[in-house]
Every structure is written in structure tokens, then in C-alpha cells.
Design goal:
Elements lengths: L24 H14 L2 H5 L5 E2 L2 E2 L11 H19 L2 E2 L5 E2 L4 H11 L8 H25 L10 E2 L3 H16 L3 E11 L4 E3 L4 E16 L2 H7 L5 E6 L10 E4 L4 E7 L2 E6 H11 L5 E7 L7 E3 L6 E6 L12 E3 L5 H10 L26 H14 L3 E14 L7 E10 L6 H9 L3 E3 L3 H11 L3 E2 L1 E2 L10 E3 L5 E2 L2 H14 L2 H5 L2 H5 L1 H6 L7 E3 L3 E2 L1 H6 L1 H4 L13 E5 L6 H13 L6 E5 L2 E2 L16 H7 L2 H10 L6 E2 L2 H24 L5 H4 L8 H22 L3 H30 L5 H21 L4 H10 L25 H25 L12 E7 L11 H8 L3 E5 L7 E2 L6 E7 L3 E2 L6 E2 L13 H8 L1
Parallel strand pairs: 1-3, 2-26, 4-5, 9-12, 10-15, 19-27, 26-27, 28-29, 30-31
Antiparallel strand pairs: 6-7, 6-18, 8-9, 8-17, 10-16, 11-12, 11-13, 14-15, 18-20, 21-25, 22-23, 22-24, 30-33, 32-33, 34-35
Length: 932
């Protein structure tokens, strides 16, 4: 054979792998999902575990497509659970859905149109069930597409009979423990949806409201105290429509109040606020006549400005000097603080506003029938006519809105069912229990604690058809409540079989049954059922009992609750209150919260603005793994950002990790770890350095998974794959992988390192890049795998023998020097008279007077390999052709073209080509590989 005919490229050990460079995730991922389902990977991943870990899923609402916040939440949960399973935990995932409530009922009645008016509550409920289950199915498919493993065939739904029965059981326990009561109290009320709302159903938006100063004329007892013949107390309010419910004016016991002579008569208000208030009212000529402490004026009376009613001066600590006059208009029927202080004084709760937000005749004939917003204008006009209005203006401020209808709410006293928080031990018991809960981030405990400290009684009744009924019976003639443990147990047993529709379907007598009717002397009495349903926050708040108590193998308290930070005022809180009120403990050991997802500029996502990033769109373009990588990369403890630019950056980071895996797979295709492994002692220094870096990474990754700090582990894995491996180690060992003998110790040592890197890397990325990790796993040699799927595998073991800090310090210096050499090599590639093309075309000459590097620079063969050059020379002198280093003092580098000829096999330059007559154009090393 003629030497010129020999293709030396065919003698190289080039990579071989079926693992594609192009990910094609949108098309490949559904195939892996199908495979996971067919192989029952989720169920298998729970088998044979010796430890347990319980993450309890908070239920999203079954209405509409999932959004990017849902994706962040579910993916974070999935990352944790996949990691825990690899760590040997039985860590089930039971997904759940919140399926009752107003939005579903409104949507269903809207779709039914006029037909809804002719349908019975039972028929409406049946349609609501269909609607909820439809969206459960759609959302379920979307969550599965994200690569989330779980019990998708048997999720928990708050409409499931078993769940509803457990909910009624918790209600019974709360009732019997004295925490449930019915009362007339001011609550958030939506005039649009005509139902009570919980605090967690409120969001705030800016509105424009009237701001008025009103003079309330005082009665004779008050005048005698003041020592004048005429006077008025000035109140300030932004809700004129609540004036018909005014029953008192509240002062602060400790403030000084001044009586001022003005052009509008003698006026009383807090001294500290007088100057500002009079300026706003445009009253300039004022004279302080007398002053009084708040306590001196208690229980004096005044006359309502347009109703035949006498009001009282009362005292309260909630009166501040922040704004107004220090004389607070008090309507116990329209405000929580007003209600609390009014109760202390035994003041009647008056609420002259109906379910639709219209004033009733109790507000006076002049205003009856007006919608509360229109009543604002009419009341102000009337006050001006009668001389009571001292100033009218308007201002913009934040105001509570119904988070579903997006309309303003009102504070309105209605007869509702409550969980007693005020005046019971439930608040303090809850606060005490929270001290034993771990919070991530740590500030979460302050947030939820302050909310519980300040929260009023929890209104749990709703005026709708679609939900779990409040299981109370009444004597229809006397209105007396009928609640007996045996009766409620009978209802619970029926609901467990037929669902809460049984409450609507059967009469009170049928629900109670003959035996219990007789036992409790209810026969012959006209009975009726409570028509209100429970707040959906009560529905979801009992999931710790409805799920963790009812399913085999689950337990409470859960090890972890993980939801958005808004759930401090929602699910975390309602779960805690129902748990404390029933079983006296917290339902969770740890709470982890994430922020909201905003667009790339940090703005809230909105369909109207057009900045919404939908999970399905991301998946179609990039694949679910890129979305999962984004979830792992962001510091979820605060609000996070997503945009196409950020996703492109994720795709680039993903590409580096994928290419590293692909390169390793290609170069270990002929490697059998059971027969070809090289011992640590027989490895080259660079191999030991790579194992040190791997071991450091393994340790840090485990720590970050345990701390749920995925954003840290993402950056470390990305740096390891892209820099430590691809840009350094794999680049340097390419020569021996390709050119050395197939089974040489040097080549096998490099393969040993790469094998260990790949096995560890695929396991550490699998909780995040679940699809790609599976694809890598399938491409790995069978002998390397300990399970059919990466998700059935075990977490890697750490090997402290690989840790070598001294070696790491030495190689830090080598890397630093290589960086400087690469800069000079790059200069040699540039310009008209470029010296080199490939780095192997070069000879690098170094002059050194830095003692730190003296010993290192004696290892020229090693450095020649590290720099990937054909020759390295250490000079004892330098001239102007040398380049100084940017980051190392007293080292100077020069690059010239390497002497000799280029080896046609390894591309290194050599002055000794042709040591074998059959191979005149290759170097001695390559000749030895081919001939020995």
C-alpha cells in the first residue's frame, strides 16, 4: 500500500454516538412521556424506598388554561420530588384541584344563558361538575406535558365525595370545639356577585373616591360640657354612602381635642390635625376657645345629619393622627374596627344596604334604592344643602376589589357563618404552632404571623349553589339551630357515597332519618336546611385532612407545602386555622414560597398589554426542558422574570450541557467500566484534577438540592459542563482520546473520568432536565446503568478520596497561565501577517521571573499538552516581541510558528517525521500507535 493512499483520519478513535446534537425537544418529549406512562415509571419510582417524604400539593383552580405561574409552581415541586426519590425517599405526588365556587358557577350560568333560570340548584350543580372536570382534564394534560410525574390517574378533587365528607367532618370538629358561629358582622361583600368574600379573595386597585368633611351638630349634654350654645364635631370620610349607618363618633382617649370658633360655627377636632384640616376646608379665621382630653367627652351625644338618630361619642385605640380630624365616623355595620369598638359599647349594628349594593329604606326615603356609588353624590348634595358639608374633594387611593369579578367590594354587615378567631384561643395556638414551622425564605413566618395577628373572624359562608353545604338544620318556626354530632355523622356518611349534592337532593327529614328525628324530638317539627355553602378557601384549607388522612401511605403533618407567596394570606393560613381548630397542630413542617412571574421588564403579565408568556407556547418553541431549566435558574424567592430573550439564553445554556454529554457519550462508546476502568493512582494529574472538580460539584449540588436552592446548582452545573469540562478538560484530552491506542492506559484513564462525570452529571440534572437526562440515560452503555430509567436510579455516591485541594491550587495557576497563553495565540491568528491558524501550528516561548511559577514552568511536556501547542520553550531572556500578561506579573509570552512539519495524523508539528519508512509524514508518537 502506498503511504499517500492511506487516510490517517480513519485511524483516529473518533466519537460514535446515537445521541443527537440537535435536541428537537418539542417532538422528542411526548415520546418519552408515552414511554414513562407505559413503563409505569412514577409508581415504580416509589417502590422499595426506606424513607418517606410528603409534599402536599396546593390545588389550583379548575378554570382556564394553566399560566406560567402554574408551571413554575409545579416544576419546582417536581424537581424536589424527583430528587427525593433518587435519594431513596418514597415521595409521592398527589396533584389536586379546587373545583367549587363562584367563578365556575358564574361561567356555567353564563354559558347556559336564559336556560339557567329554569334549572334547579341540583341541575346547576351537575353542570358545574362537568365544567370543573373538563378543566381538570385540560390542566392535567398541560402539567403532564411539563414532565411532572405523579398520580395523575387518581388526583384529589375538592368535589370528590370522599373529600367532601372529610371536609364536613372537619367542620363538625370545629363546631364542637366552639370555633364556628353565626353572627351579624361587617364583611367584604361583592354587589356584583352578591356573596360574602374572604380576605384571600381580595385584591387592591386604585379608585377615585370622594373626600368629605362633615359637621355633626352636638346635643345639649355636649353643649353644656363645652360651655357654648352651638357646636359641631367634624368627621372626615371617603365613603359618604355609609353615613346612613353612622351610630357613633370615635375619639382617642389620650388625644387633646380643641373647640375652635370659626365662620362655620364652633367646631371640635383633634388639636394636632386642626391646622391641616382647616386649611383643606378653606377655613382661615379660627380661634381656639377650649381644649379637652378625649376621655372627657366619652358618651356625650350628637344628632345624625339627616336621620332621626342620636349618636354617641366613644373611645377607641384605632383612632390615629395620620389623616382626617381625629374624630372617626363609626358605622359598625360597615367596618371591622367600627364593629369591634361598637360591640364594646353595645351599639346596634345597622346596615342599610342590600345584597345588590343598593341603599334600603333604613337609609332614609330620600336615598332608598340608590346604588351605593350614586348614593355618594346624592348624600353629599343633601349635606351641602343642609349646611353639614364643610368640604368636598376627590382623591385616588387603593381600594379592595373582588379578585374574580375585578369590581369594588363594600363592607357590609350580614348574617354569616364564621370561624372564631377573635376572642378564642385559635389565634394564639396558630401563632405558637408557626414557631415550630421552618420557612423558606425565612421572612415568611413574619408575614403569615402578622396576618394572623390582625385577621378578623373568618367568614366561611357563601351565597351560592356550587359548593359544600354548611351542614346546619333549623327549626323553621323558631329559627333555632339544630346541630348534633350523630346527625352530622349521618349526613357525612351519605355525602361520602353520593357527594354533597345529597344535601340539595334530599329534604331535612330524609337527611336526618327517622331514627334520629325521633331520638332528638324533631318529629313533627318543620325543619329547613342551611342554604349557604362553604368558602372555597375552607374547601382547600382542609386538604391536609381530605387527602393526607384518607389515602393509604400518606401522613400529616406534611413535610413541605410549596406555593406562591400570596398563599401566606390564603391556603397556608386557612390550612393552619382548620388544622389548629380541629386537631390542634400545624398541617405542615416546612413552608417554601416563590414569587410571581413577570415579563422581561419586570412588569405584571396582562393579556391587554400583550406581554403574557404561555407555557404551551414555550414548549412548542423550545420544549419543556428549557422551561424547566428556566425554573431552576431563577431565584424564585422573589418575583422572577421571563421573556423570549431569557428563554434563548436558557436554550444556549442547555446546549452547552447537552453538547458536553454528547461529547462524552461519543468518546466512551468502546468503554466498559467493569473491565476498562483505570485506578485513581494510575491517572494523569489532569484526570485527578477533573475528578476533584467533579467531586466538589457533586457535594455542592447535593447541598443546594437539600436547601432547595436550585438557582445555585444550575449555575454550578452549567459552569462545570461549559467551562471546566468542554472548554478545558475535554478540549485538552481530545488529543489522547483520538490519537492514542484504543486500549492505552492514558486513553482509558480519560474515559474513566468521562464515564464518572457522565453518570454523576445525568443524575444531578435529571430532576431539572428530566427529558434530556432520560435521553442521555438511554444512550449510555447498558453496563453503566443501575435502572431502566434515570428516574428509577439512585443518587450518586460521593468519594472524598478525589478531593485534592493542593492539586486544585496548582491547576488554578495552570488555568490562569493558559488563559494568558490563549490571548497571545489569538493575537497570532489575527492581522495580515498572521503567524498561526490552529494552536497546534505554534511554538510558545515563555520568559519568567515570577517565583510562584518557576517550579510549574519546568513541566514543559505537561504545559505543551495543556496549551495544545506543538512546542513550548522556556527562555532565559526576552525582547520587545514578547507580550506581558494581564493578570500575572513577571511572565512574558511570545508565539511563533512551530518548527518542523505537520503530522498528517495528529496535526502537531514535529522535526522528526518519517521514523518509519511506511509512514514518512507522521510523527514518532503516531507511528508507534500504528506499528506497535
Amino acid at each position: 500500500m502506498q503511504e499517500k493512499e492511506l487516510d490517517y483520519g480513519k485511524t483516529l478513535n473518533l466519537p460514535k454516538t446515537s445521541f443527537n446534537m440537535k435536541a428537537n425537544l418539542p417532538n422528542k418529549e411526548p415520546l418519552l412521556l408515552k414511554e414513562w406512562n407505559e413503563k409505569n415509571i412514577y409508581k415504580k419510582s416509589l417502590e422499595g424506598k426506606t424513607k418517606k417524604f410528603m409534599l402536599h400539593d396546593g390545588p389550583p383552580y379548575a378554570n382556564g388554561n394553566i399560566h406560567i405561574g402554574h408551571a413554575l409552581n409545579k416544576i419546582l415541586k417536581d424537581i424536589i420530588l424527583k430528587y427525593k426519590r433518587l435519594q431513596g425517599f418514597e415521595a409521592p405526588y398527589i396533584p389536586g384541584w379546587d373545583t367549587h365556587g363562584l367563578p365556575i358557577e358564574l361561567k356555567v350560568t353564563e354559558e347556559l344563558g336564559e336556560k339557567a333560570k329554569t334549572m334547579s340548584p341540583l341541575e346547576i350543580r351537575q353542570e358545574c361538575t362537568k365544567y370543573a372536570k373538563k378543566w381538570v382534564q385540560k390542566q392535567k394534560e398541560s402539567f403532564i406535558r411539563l414532565g411532572i410525574l405523579g398520580e395523575w390517574d387518581n388526583p384529589y378533587l375538592t368535589l370528590n365525595p370522599e373529600y367532601e365528607a372529610k371536609q364536613l367532618e372537619v367542620f363538625k370538629e370545629l363546631y364542637l370545639n366552639g370555633y364556628i358561629f353565626k353572627g351579624l358582622k361587617p364583611i367584604y361583600w361583592s354587589p356584583v356577585t352578591q356573596t360574602a368574600l374572604a380576605e384571600a379573595e381580595i385584591e387592591y386597585k386604585d379608585v377615585v373616591s370622594p373626600s368629605i368633611y362633615v359637621k355633626m351638630n352636638v346635643n345639649q349634654d355636649f353643649l353644656e360640657k363645652l360651655g357654648v350654645e352651638e357646636a359641631g364635631v367634624i368627621i372626615w370620610t371617603t365613603t359618604p354612602w355609609t353615613l346612613p349607618a353612622n351610630m357613633a363618633i370615635c375619639l382617642n382617649a389620650e388625644y387633646q381635642y380643641g373647640l375652635y370658633k370659626t365662620s362655620k360655627g364652633n367646631l371640635l377636632l383633634a388639636k394636632e390635625l386642626a391646622e391641616k384640616a382647616f386649611a383643606e376646608m378653606g377655613i382661615t379665621d379660627i380661634e381656639l376657645i377650649k381644649e379637652f382630653k378625649g376621655t372627657e367627652l366619652e358618651k356625650l351625644t350628637y344628632t345624625h345629619p339627616f336621620l332621626e338618630r342620636t349618636g354617641f361619642i366613644i373611645l377607641g385605640d384605632h383612632v390615629t393622627l395620620d389623616a382626617g380630624t381625629g374624630c372617626v365616623h363609626t358605622a359598625p355595620g360597615h367596618g371591622q374596627e367600627d364593629y369591634v369598638v361598637g360591640t364594646k359599647y353595645g351599639i346596634e349594628v345597622v346596615c342599610p344596604v342590600d345584597n345588590h349594593g343598593h341603599l334600603t329604606t333604613e337609609a332614609g326615603e330620600k336615598f332608598a334604592g340608590l346604588f351605593y356609588k350614586k348614593a355618594n353624590k346624592e348624600i353629599c348634595a343633601h349635606l351641602e344643602e343642609t349646611g353639614h358639608l364643610l368640604k368636598y374633594s376627590e382623591f385616588s387611593h387603593s381600594y379592595p376589589h373582588d379578585w374574580r369579578s375585578k369590581t369594588p367590594v363594600i363592607f357590609r354587615a350580614t348574617e354569616q357563618w364564621f370561624v372564631r378567631v377573635e376572642g378564642s384561643d385559635i389565634r394564639q395556638n396558630a401563632l405558637n404552632a408557626l414557631k415550630e414551622v421552618e420557612f423558606v425564605p425565612a421572612w415568611g413566618i413574619n408575614r403569615i404571623s402578622s396576618m394572623i395577628e390582625n385577621r378578623p373572624d373568618w367568614c366561611i359562608s357563601r351565597q351560592r349553589a356550587w359548593g359544600v353545604p354548611i351542614p346546619i338544620f333549623y327549626n323553621n318556626q323558631t329559627g333555632q339551630e339544630i346541630f348534633e354530632a350523630e346527625i352530622i355523622d349521618k349526613v357525612i356518611s351519605l355525602v361520602k357515597v353520593q357527594g354533597s349534592a345529597a344535601w340539595v337532593k334530599y329534604s331535612a327529614e330524609e337527611l336526618i332519618g327517622e331514627e334520629l328525628l325521633e331520638k332528638y324530638n324533631l318529629k313533627g317539627i318543620e325543619l329547613r336546611k342551611e342554604t349557604n355553602i362553604m368558602d372555597v378557601w375552607f374547601d382547600s384549607g382542609v386538604s391536609h385532612r381530605g387527602v393526607l388522612d384518607t389515602r393509604e401511605g400518606l401522613y400529616r403533618p406534611a413535610d413541605l407545602y410549596l406555593e406562591g407567596s400570596d398563599q401566606h394570606r390564603g391556603w397556608f393560613q386557612t390550612s393552619l386555622l382548620t388544622s389548629i381548630g380541629s386537631t390542634k397542630d400545624a398541617p405542615y413542617k416546612k413552608i417554601l414560597t416563590h414569587g410571581f412571574v413577570n415579563d422581561g421588564e419586570g412588569k405584571k403579565m396582562s393579556k391587554s398589554i400583550g406581554n403574557v408568556v404561555a407555557p404551551e407556547d414555550v414548549i412548542k418553541t423550545y420544549g419543556a426542558d428549557i422551561l424547566r431549566l428556566w425554573c431552576a435558574s431563577v431565584d424564585y424567592r422573589d418575583d422572577v422574570r421571563i421573556s423570549d430573550l431569557l428563554l434563548k439564553q436558557m436554550a444556549e445554556a442547555y446546549r452547552r450541557i447537552r453538547n458536553t454529554a454528547r461529547y462524552i457519550l461519543g468518546n466512551i462508546s468502546d468503554f466498559n467500566p467493569s473491565t476498562d476502568k483505570v485506578s485513581y493512582e494510575d491517572m494523569a494529574e489532569i484526570d485527578k484534577w477533573a475528578l476533584h472538580k467533579l467531586e466538589t460539584l457533586k457535594k455542592n449540588v447535593t447541598i443546594n438540592y437539600d436547601k432547595y436552592e436550585f438557582y445555585n446548582l444550575f449555575h454550578e452545573i452549567h459552569y462545570f459542563a461549559g467551562v471546566d469540562m468542554s472548554a478545558f478538560y475535554l478540549d485538552i484530552i481530545k488529543d489522547r482520546l483520538y490519537t492514542e491506542k484504543l486500549d492505552s492506559k492514558d486513553r482509558r484513564a480519560a474515559q474513566t473520568v468521562m464515564f464518572e462525570v457522565l453518570v454523576s452529571l445525568v443524575k444531578m440534572i435529571s430532576p431539572v432536565l428530566s427529558f434530556t437526562a432520560e435521553e442521555i440515560w438511554q444512550a449510555m452503555p447498558e453496563v453503566a446503568k443501575d435502572a431502566d430509567s434515570i428516574h428509577l436510579s439512585k443518587w450518586y455516591e460521593e468519594n472524598s478520596n478525589y478531593i485534592n485541594d493542593e492539586l486544585d491550587q496548582k491547576w488554578d495557576k495552570i488555568i490562569k497561565l493558559r488563559k494568558e497563553v490563549n490571548k497571545v495565540l489569538e493575537k497570532g491568528r489575527q492581522g495580515e501577517n498572521k503567524i498561526i491558524g490552529n494552536s497546534l501550528d505554534s511554538e510558545v516561548t515563555i520568559f519568567n521571573s515570577n517565583t510562584e511559577y518557576s517550579s510549574l514552568l519546568t513541566e514543559t511536556d505537561l504545559l505543551e499538552t495543556i496549551f495544545i501547542v506543538s512546542k513550548l520553550t522556556i527562555s532565559d531572556s526576552k525582547d520587545d516581541s514578547y507580550n506581558s500578561c494581564d493578570e500575572i506579573n513577571d511572565i512574558f509570552i511570545k508565539v511563533t510558528h512551530a518548527p518542523g512539519e505537520k503530522c498528517e495524523r495528529c496535526w502537531k508539528y514535529s522535526e522528526n517525521l518519517g521514523t518509519h519508512t511506511e509512514h514518512p509524514h507522521i510523527c514518532p508518537r503516531c507511528t508507534d500507535v500504528l506499528t506497535k
